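Slides due. Your pick:
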Amino acid sequence: VFIANGTWVAGLAGKTSKTLESYQFKIVGTGNAVERNYERSVIYDLSAGQKNDSLLALKKLTGATQAFNSPSWLEPYKEGDNKSDFLLILGTSANKE
């Protein structure tokens, strides 16, 4: 999982990564999303449906909804150093949990 902070709340991605690691998720990286105005958390399934159990667990743990579009800016998360099965973009709703 790569976790991107889509809010202006400092440290939210790091805090979330520790929580998810306690549930045995491997966090490949954290950072800030390009846009920081997300209200709700969103998950992009970059595994193309290969890890459905993990996707369901992530949705349950984070309250995130799944995005089904595939914008071009997702490409760096599909290969290279940031390659991951899931991209989780945190919204302000994540700060309330």
Observations:
- Residues 6 and 35 are 6 Å apart (CA to CA).
- The mean pLDDT is 91.
